[in-house]
Amino acid sequence: MMSGFNGTKENSHNKARTSPYPGSKVQRSQVPNDKVDWLVEWHDYNPVEYTAVSVLAGPQWADPQITESNFSPKFNEKDGQVERKSQNGLYEVKNGRPRNPAGRTGLVGRGLLGRWGPNHAADPIITRWKRDRSGNKITHPISGKNILQFVAIKRKDCGEWAIPGGMVDPGEKISATLKREFGEEALNSLQKSSAEKRELQEKLQKLFNQEHLVIYKGYVDDPRNTDNAWMETEAVNYHDETGEIMDNLTLEAGDDAGKVKWMDISDKLKLYASHAQFIKSVAEKRDAHWSKDSETGCPG
């Protein structure tokens, strides 16, 4: 069910049980580790109901309330332009509401999430080798491996460093979301003139047209998740081997990002949601430095 992350339900379902719920004072009902799984009977389970006002206002990116008579979503399938299929396979629907495939969260409703069921995002991980002034790759003195860098943004909503990324628009291909979100958050493309945008697109095309690695696809342990709505993502690594493409692009924070910078990859990183695990996978797949211990785990 939780493909891509090894480990127990407890450590893949922590952030989805934290209180207060983001952007509110709402406290979730406490869910002990042994009661997370839906297969464990828990007759006294009494989750708090919460859907944010911003979602209830009915913006374009949000579903109506499940009780509205003219709303009959097709769960587990493509519903018009809205993708309601999960990357993790079929999910249960109980009393007309989809059920979080990772288990109980202590909160029902949608919280800050627009869609009932899976809310699809895309996370572009843009990497290059760290180099000295002469252009030589820098190796870590202890592990002896080359140091990889990735483009990180500081999120405006919570102040944490993260991979740039965002929600897949209805009908949008994941590859288009990856490129659009990187442009908006790390290159401030929304504020550029049409001529600048065209130039940016040409450079980005080079980066996004080369071979890439799909690092993870599926459910994400995210503080916004509820029993009925959850985040899923596709994290994809685009690597600029020579560094020449990214040398010609100036990083500039935009949209949901407060800051943007190149960050060295190592086990010291403290990142938003499950992002550190995605970055660790990139380091392993690229045989780059991760930790001072020689064992970084099996390359996957």
From TrEMBL:
Originating organism: Bison bison bison
Q: What is its EC number?
A: 3.6.1.13
Query: Under which name does UniProt file this protein?
Result: ADP-ribose pyrophosphatase, mitochondrial
Q: Where is this region: Disordered?
A: 1-30
Question: Which family, according to the similarity comment?
Answer: Belongs to the Nudix hydrolase family. NudF subfamily.
- Job of this protein: Hydrolyzes ADP-ribose (ADPR) to AMP and ribose 5'-phosphate.
Has UniProt tagged this entry with the keyword Acyltransferase?
no
- Which ranges carry the Nudix hydrolase domain? 129-285
GO CC: one term? mitochondrion
